[in-house]
Amino acid sequence: MELIHSKDIYYVIRDVLKLLDPKIMNHGERTAYILYKMLSLESNLEMYQIAELALIATLHDIGAYKTDYQKDRLAYESKDCIPHSIYGYLFLLYLTPFKDRAKIVLYHHTDYNRLPRMDYEYLDIIHYLNVAEKMDIYSSIMGSKFDHMMFNKQAGSKYSPKALELLYQAEKRYGIFAKLSSGEYEKELSELYDYLIFTDDEKRDCLMGLISCVSFRSEYTMADMVTCTHICESIGEKLLLSDKQQEMLNYAAMLHDAGMCAIPRDIIEAPRSLTEEEMDFLRTHIDVINRILKGKLDQDCLDIIMTHHERGDGSGYPRELTQGKMNLLEQILQVADTVTGLTNPRSYREPKSKEEVIDILTTDAEMCKYSKEVVKIFVKFYDKIMDGVKLKSEEKLSTYRRMVENYEVTYRQIVK
Ligand SMILES: [Fe+2]
Ligand SMILES: [Fe+2]
Ligand SMILES: [Fe+2]
Question: What one-character-per-residue DSSP string does 150-171 give?
Fold first, then answer.
């Protein structure tokens, strides 16, 4: 039994990113639907290929999560389109399994007659996406005044004549814009995504990509995820967990704090203690991730996530569970998450030293907050585990740095 279906990987990515800004994903999905219907008229594509291209179309503005996008969508879509196009491209190139389709995103704002000559498998898709996303923007803004034929005047200059023709045919056959207005498109898109098939590695890469994207907002997120997953894996190895258990723990460690995207940055990064009201709000990140993952992620795996703030003495949340009610995997994530919080930098305090971390953990384990067995193993292998964390974090950081460096190079290529 797989822990999560390929289709649900897509929905988890969409729903977590919607927490940060629903507009980008809503526009992405409508654009994906338009592209899907255009591609349905192209007989050379299999359904799974169309589904993957629709997924890329949903993510086409993902770079806007990195650029300082305005609340007004048109700011990044019309005033300066290059930064978010480049970041979206680099994001797909470095951090997802969709490297070969990254250029579709890089050029999604490039006019038809300005696109550099290139031998690229997805050249037509670039033109189609360019048309599809403009259609969504203009139809949303103009409402009843919108006429999809109005772009005819720019055929051959701004837009590809072939792409426009495909759009006209698709509108005639499927009534795209009526379905976008009625919301019917969502069901059709969901049926299309039944065709998505990812390998286990691709699923993991997709979720890692998601966390990287979320890290665009808060620099701590990526370091925390790398630290927490590595600690879980290391403790799991020492406790001889099965492959299946390790996989569950890995998914739980990756996703356990994704609900934090619903919490404003000024609360997460407040350089002071939080008020009781703010703490209550912060605690809702558990309910948020539960809403997103319920029915998608394997329930045992979700249970690990749901208990990461529980403590064996009943002082945790949200259900104040006691030790007998929690299994080993849940207790490993509790320790790993605590160590992550203590050892990684925070805006309100310095990272704790090895001695301080061990002291806190052993005292709390004595008071039954944490599993004594898990804490014992962690303390015994502290140096080895934390050296591994350092190495993994460096690896991730260097990918991130390469990505940022590549921004300048790509920018110069695009605007030359
Ligand atoms: Fe865009
Ligand atoms: Fe767009
Ligand atoms: Fe948490």
Answer: GGGGGBTTTB-HHHHHHHHHHH
Distance 133 CA to ligand 2 centre (A): 5
Ligand 1 centre to CA of 77 (Å) is 5
Residue length, the chain? 416
**Protein residues near ligand 2, an ion, with CB under 5 A:** 61, 133
Is there a cis peptide before residue 318, judged by omega within 30 degrees of 0? yes
In one-letter notation, the amino acid at residue 335 is V
**What is d(CA 405, CA 212) in angstroms, rounded to the nearest whole number?**
16
State whether the Cα torsion 96-97-103-108 is positive or negative.
Answer: negative
Instruction: State the chain's maximal CA–CA distance in angstroms.
Output: 75
Task: Kindly identify the ligand whose nearest atom is closest to the C-alpha of 253.
Answer: 3
Q: How far is ligand 3, taken at its centre, from the CA of residue 3, in Å?
A: 21
Residue 155 phi/psi, 5° resolution? -65, 130
- What are the per-10-residue average pLDDT scores of the chain (416 residues)? 94 95 94 98 92 97 76 61 91 92 96 91 96 93 82 92 96 95 96 96 92 77 91 98 97 95 86 90 96 98 98 97 95 98 86 96 97 98 97 88 86 81
Distance between Cα 109 and ligand 1 center (Å): 6
Q: What is the rounded CA–CA span in Å between residue 100 and residue 110?
A: 18
Instruction: Measure 383 CA to ligand 2 centroid, in angstroms.
Output: 47
pTM assigned to the model: 0.92
The CA 395 to ligand 2 mean position distance, Å, reads 31
Which has the closest alpha carbon to 254: 276, 232, 282? 232
Ligand that comes closest to the CA of residue 133: 2
Buried-state track 167-206, b at ≥16 Cβ within 10 A, e below 16? beebbeebebbebbeeeebeeebeebbebbebeeebbbbb
CA of 291 to the centre of ligand 3 (A): 15
Strand partners, 346: 349
Give 197 Cα–ligand 2 centroid separation in angstroms: 25
How far, in Å, from the CA of 61 to the mean position of ligand 2? 5
Please tell me the distance between residue 74's alpha carbon and the centre of ligand 2 in angstroms.
9
**Sign of the CA dihedral with 190 first, then 194, 195, and 199 last:** positive
- Residue 317 alpha carbon to ligand 2 centre in Å: 40
Classify residue 294 as exposed, middle or buried by CB count within 10 Å of its CB (0-12, 13-18, 19+): exposed
